[in-house]
Amino acid sequence: MNQYQGIGVSRGIAIGPAFRFDETDLDFERHKIDDPDEELKRLQDAIEQTREELIAVEEQTKKAIGADEAALFHAHRAMLEDPELLDEIRRTIRDEHLNAEAALYDASEVYAETLEALESEYLQARAADVRDVINRVLRSLLGEAHAPTEGLDEPSVILSRDLAPSDTALLEPSVVLGFCTTQGGPTSHTAILARGLGIPAIVAADPKVLDIPEETCLILDGSQGKLIAQPGEDVLEEYRQRKVRQNAIFKQARKQAREPAITKDGHRIEVGANIGDVDGAKSALNAGADGVGLLRTEFIYLDRDTLPDEETQYEAYHAILAAMQDRPVILRTLDIGGDKDLPYLELPEEANPFLGVRALRLCMRHTELFKPQLRAALRAGAGHDLKVMFPMVTTVAEVHEAKAMLQTCRAELKDEGRKPSDQIEIGIMVETPAAALMIDQLAEEVDFFSIGTNDLSQYVMVADRTNANVAAMATGFQPAVLRLVRRVIQTAHDHDRWVGMCGELAAEPLAIPILLGLGLDEFSMTPTAIPLAKQIIRSLSATDAQELADEALNLTDAEEVQEFVRNQVPAADIA
Amino acid sequence: MPEVTIKIRAEVGLHARPAATLVDMAKEFECDIRVSHEGNQANAKSILQVLSLGAEKGDEITIATEGDDAEAALERLTELVNQGFELHTNAAGDERDDRL
Questions:
Q1: Of A21, A300, A304, A315, which cross-links A160 as Cys (Cβ 3.0–4.6 Å)?
Q2: Mind listing the pLDDT tens digit for each residue in B53-86?
Q3: ipTM of the complex, rounded to two decimals
Q4: Residues of B with CB under 8 A from a CB of A
Q5: pTM for the full model?
Q6: What is the DSSP string of A129-161?
């Protein structure tokens, strides 16, 4: 039995025989040609053929995965039709009488290498896209057939040096159980497409995996980036069981997406959606959301050059409330500043934007910004279950002032003969250590709390989540963060207030048992994560989760916490 | 030659999809369109050159146009960049893979 490590980029377990896909190196000769016109015609034909192939890939991707993923191949086509690239290739053919293959290769490699030399890991990964497109044209010029899965007649796990995005998009999940490549990275389009297809995948694996002979029995664990060759019977059995368990959870999750999440011991847990617009509301309903736990309102402000007026906002909120069909919607007031900017406000640059005038602090200083939003919310909320939530609260006084402002808006609307909502519930985001430590006093002011773990984690861990060197520290799995979360929930419950969470942590399968154990009342997350979260909640008992949480919070770091849950709660061992 | 300097607000910078959107729009115009970033210049109709600029979120880029429909092109492209390259509104974008 041999074990190899790589980077897991698409979760799930695959068990099956190895199938080697060895890209044939595209060998072409470099030579002078006699007739440039004929060579240009060859090139043009190859480009046309590739264009048709890419359109087919785009169509297939749209069907099998989705429009966002299909758009990648639109970018591929733009590369194929790149005027600067084509000019250079044609010039070389015409002026230097170089053959099309060499001219194409030389001109495109310059770009591929430029991209690889860029600082951004993401843009480096785009070199693979350039080569993917160019290889298609080359193969067309050379008349070489290309089918990575040719000869693959039994369901297998593919081992390969690399898989081009356009090849990945065409993989058939019924035959390709999983794949493992030695190159590529988590930001590659290949990884994104694998996730879209639901094919477990590992990239950047130990190059030794390419020495594994065909037909060798393999276990590929896409969640942990682990490939096991020739596993012993006990390991195989363990993974078989894990796979069955995971598949059952996924299947059950999809089936019961719209049913409530009730724990084994009968506690109903709200699972809401984080959305940003009316499309999000539709996704939320499809995914089975009990409501909207976080409506980000920044979208109304971002796509424009001037401040949106009250009417624009009213219509946007109204549309979302209507789409949610009587389900509760928590509207978070404008959360700008920090890493989010609004150019037309011309806000002064701050040395430390995360510690500066952001969110509620900004809104209280710019009432011309805040009042139209509150008025729009009060109007849209009439007759609907709309709640208002203030972000980035640090002191009780801030909540006082914000509430007073809301009250002023309500009085003004009434004076104007409008009908504002009279009983809007008010909550705050708990995302600063200050708020977390003042819950007892804040509870006097508000109806509910929602913990924003992304900011709370970075403030508690003193680690900028946008700084790659320390971002990993700023995770909600840190016992320090979880202890604060426990304190928030306990104090809020002591004061009869409910607590939700709309940060990324709420959607983490390994975090859900802990959060449930800490007594969290509502989980809110990106719509696609809802079915699985609900299913994990259904598999748990709140009483057991409480014990689990107590133990987890006594561990020393985030890795230990995750490992502990992984071992204790097999149902959550998914991501 | 009209030009404008703007900050990139798209979460992912000038990456594949935003770059393709920019290039698509640039191609709708007859005029010559140049994008520059930290001393490097790209033809806005060339996705490879635009990607090669390596422009990230928060970076400033300058768009310069020259030709018949230069003013209109500049206006549309500025709007696009300011909108975070999204023709369809989805500012939060958390439901899809932002690395696309």
A1: A21
A2: 999 888 899 999 999 999 999 999 998 888 777 5
A3: 0.87
A4: 6-7, 9, 12-13, 15-17, 19-20, 23-24, 43, 45-49, 51-52, 54, 56, 79, 82-84, 86, 88-97, 99-100
A5: 0.66
A6: HHHHHHHHHHHHHHT----TTTT--S-EEEEES
